[in-house]
């Protein structure tokens, strides 16, 4: 089983050198067991406790960090020259966003909310609860940007301002809207000419209870999917939901895809082709990142449907997107998986006096199709 992330004093990239200079913990490893209890340190500049995550699969592409807002406090204003996704691991509060000489816009968030902080605009984060801190997970592409421009002042002290997105047509943080598109992300769906909704928005109120899901047949397990994009931004992601006592097909893609668990209990297995497997136990609040071109597979041994939320790396970089480019090479069907995969799943369930809900037909026919309500 993999060791959880630990604070390691070593910098290997311009981004890590900058992060190390901030004087807060920098955790390396394969996963974080729970970002709600992760060790943080005081960040004087931001006036909060925080920590950077530099997990094995981020590989200089994406930043993940955890920040904590003290009870009843508002953090100092901050402006940066990149888009950033924020997932609320715990707590309830407010975000205020504005451009210079323009009115401020404020919205509320709660545990499991997801929202975007737009580039070139100022923002302020507030904890609306006076009796407990709020914990946030932040995601952006700063490490990749600093690879070509290793000057932190460009990203944090840049006077350039752009208010067009924030004050354009419609309310920036209005309810997400669905756009029906032909699914090219999955070969399984593309070959069948299937369409699905992609949800565009800058605020998703509760990822744990989001129920506007699409069938995700190509990855098995009778699972469902939410595809989400942030308008006029390179940031995007998806959330997968799959039933208890089932598991997904193994697949692989590029680095930088950060995964956080909104609900459920289980484990994932990650491995580089032909090498030893790494087992990642997870539950609500766990975070991990599959390394570049490592197969990974997700298993639900909990009492409820499992949900994992994946923040994608930039799609324009060859081999770096979350998309599985060649399903024959980059996905392992149940019929072709190693026997120990199924055996371990049965063993883990047996410890809980449970049995697998995987249908026998899935192991016998690679074209096996799960039954989906309404299909």
What does this structure look like?
The structure is a single chain. This protein is mainly beta and 375 residues long. The protein has two domains: 6-156, Jelly Rolls, CATH 2.60.120; 177-359, Jelly Rolls. The protein is 12% helix and 35% strand. It is built from seven helices and 27 strands. The strands form five sheets. Strands 1, 2, 4, 5, 6, 8, 11, 13 and 16 form a nine-stranded mixed beta sheet that branches. Strands 3, 14, 15, 17, 18, 19, 21, 24 and 26 form a nine-stranded mixed beta sheet that branches. The protein has a four-stranded antiparallel beta sheet with strand order 7-12-9-10, with no helix packed on it. Strand 22 (265-271) and strand 23 form a beta hairpin. The mean pLDDT is 91.
What is the SS-derived class? mainly beta
How is the biggest beta sheet arranged? 9 strands, mixed
CATH superfamily of the largest domain: Jelly Rolls
What is the CA–CA distance across the termini?
Answer: 39 Å
Mean pLDDT: 91
- Tell me the count of domains: 2
The unreliable regions are none
The CATH architecture designation of the largest domain is Sandwich
Write the layout of secondary structure elements.
Elements: E1 6-7, H1 14-21, E2 26-29, E3 31-32, E4 41-43, E5 48-55, E6 63-69, E7 78-79, E8 84-90, E9 93-98, E10 105-109, E11 114-117, E12 122-127, E13 134-140, H2 142-148, H3 152-156, E14 177-182, H4 187-191, E15 195-200, E16 203-204, E17 214-215, E18 224-229, E19 236-242, E20 250-251, E21 258-263, E22 265-271, E23 277-283, E24 287-288, E25 295-300, E26 306-311, H5 327-330, E27 331-332, H6 339-350, H7 361-364
């Amino acid at each position: 089983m993999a060791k959880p992330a630990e604070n390691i004093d070593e910098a290997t990239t311009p981004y890590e050198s900058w992060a190390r200079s901030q004087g807060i913990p920098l955790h390396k490893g394969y996963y974080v067991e729970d970002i709600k209890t992760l060790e943080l340190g005081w960040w004087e500049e931001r006036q909060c406790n925080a920590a950077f995550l530099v997990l094995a699969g981020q590989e200089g592409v994406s930043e993940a960090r955890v920040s904590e807002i003290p009870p009843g406090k508002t953090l100092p204003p901050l402006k940066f020259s990149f888009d950033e996704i924020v997932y609320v691991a715990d707590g309830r509060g407010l975000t205020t966003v504005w451009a210079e000489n323009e009115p401020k816009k404020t919205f509320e968030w709660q545990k499991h909310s997801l929202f975007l902080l737009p580039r070139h605009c100022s923002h302020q984060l507030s904890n609306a609860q006076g009796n407990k801190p709020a914990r946030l997970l932040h995601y952006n592409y700063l490490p990749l940007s600093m690879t070509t421009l290793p000057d932190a002042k460009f990203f944090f002290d840049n006077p350039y301002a752009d208010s067009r997105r924030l004050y354009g047509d419609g309310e920036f943080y209005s309810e997400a809207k669905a756009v029906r598109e032909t699914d090219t992300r999955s070969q399984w769906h593309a070959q069948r000419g299937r369409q699905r909704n992609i949800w565009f928005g800058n605020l998703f109120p509760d990822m744990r209870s989001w129920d506007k899901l699409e069938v995700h047949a190509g990855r098995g397990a009778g699972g469902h999917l939410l595809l989400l994009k942030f308008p006029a931004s390179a940031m995007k992601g998806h959330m997968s939901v799959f039933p208890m006592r089932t598991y997904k097909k193994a697949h692989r893609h590029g680095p930088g895809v950060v995964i956080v668990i909104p609900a459920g209990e289980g484990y994932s297995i990650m491995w580089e082709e032909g090498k030893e497997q790494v087992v990642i136990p997870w539950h609500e609040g766990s975070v991990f990142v599959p390394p570049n071109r490592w197969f990974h597979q997700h298993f639900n041994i909990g009492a409820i449907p499992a949900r994992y939320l994946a923040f994608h790396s930039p799609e324009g970089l060859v081999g770096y997107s979350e998309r599985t480019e060649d399903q024959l090479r980059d996905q392992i069907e149940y019929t072709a998986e190693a026997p120990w995969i199924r055996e371990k799943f049965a063993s883990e369930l047996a410890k809980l006096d449970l049995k697998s809900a995987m249908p026998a037909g899935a192991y016998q026919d690679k074209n096996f199709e799960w039954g989906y309500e309404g299909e």
